Amino acid sequence: MSKIDIDRHAIIQKFINKEISREYTAELLSLSLRQVTRLKQAVVDGGAAALVHKQRGQPSHNKLSEKEKTKIVKLLKNKYSDFGPTLAAEKLRENHKIKRDPKTIRAIQISEDLWKPRRTKKKSEHRAWRLRRSAFGELEQFDGSYHNWFEGRGDLGETCLLAAIDDATGFVVKLQFAPHEGVFPVFGFWKAYIETNGKPRAIYLDQFSTYKMNSRAAKENPDLKTQFERAMTELGVETVFALSPQAKGRVERLFKTLQDRLVKELRLKKISSVEEANEFLKKTFVPSFNEKFSVVPVSEANLHQKLTVKELNTLPAIFSRQEKRVVQNDFTFSFKNQWYQLLKNQPATVCKKDEVTVEEHLDHTIVIRLRGKSLNYELLPNRPKKACTQFVLPKTTIPVKPAANHPWRQRINAEITKNNL
Length: 421
Description:
It contains 13 helices and twelve strands. By secondary structure, the chain is α+β, with helices and mostly antiparallel strands.
């Protein structure tokens, strides 16, 4: 008998001896009056052993058979040795039709030394969670994560994964592998995002140099913006910058989960290239992930704003690297060590010293704009030669010495002789 059974027997015995009432017995044992009466009769007929449950010590009806347990252990060791209990249970159900609770799989993993229970964390400073936004598209958390996603397959080392997760729903709107977290990969990510979903109300970011200028000059002059800030301003999308990683914890926790789950999914599918991985993310992984982990928002509204055809046509220009250049007197200018000549026929009047905008698009084509018009130009093979502006002095001539019988000498000699007399 357990301690609970012994305590229950003592109370029931007092009730049998009429030391306490039936109502008080029911209150002490937290049972109904009818159950107390049944227990009293059971003890009278069978003694204290009648309080012990009849199934105690018997094997469970849901107990794993040795055959099934052996099969699970073999699969865990051969295919899922580094999987967590939850993910391992999912894969056993999806790939091998073995439907067992993650707690059961966890117990098997612990017994086979495939999983070590985590230590309980010490009590830390209390932190209040920021409430989710109310509607889908109100705020998107965005970041990039460098990790060995392919575990060396295809000669790929650390690769950058860009992710946008909705704050209200935890819905992963877009995942994409990229070469790095620079301007062009980020522009390509958001251009595809907006073409598919529309533009969100706001984007939550860290203070990485792609997104925010952190120099002293930028702090003193708030008008200085990165290419990303300039593009979002043109689109009318608010940019919110986190002061710590914990502030945008939703996307940080997403990467922690992906570094466990996605790595193993790519391994199981034997994916070894970025192109295959992006296709797998779009068609398979992201829909399945959202089905498991997304939540229902407070509001059913979708605050993504769809773009008109005219606005969609401006996206290539908005998501381009833009720089200013001054037109020289010969209507040329340089950009990235290449000289450009503006042609005579233009859709807008071009004057010397005009400031034009040079747009480098995602496909690396160059577009030159002035007052909203695209200018005509041609590439120059060499730097234009400067006109010669140096003043050249005329050649000096050697003075000619007059002869002794020159009239000028004769006149001077006559005057000198006259004065001496």
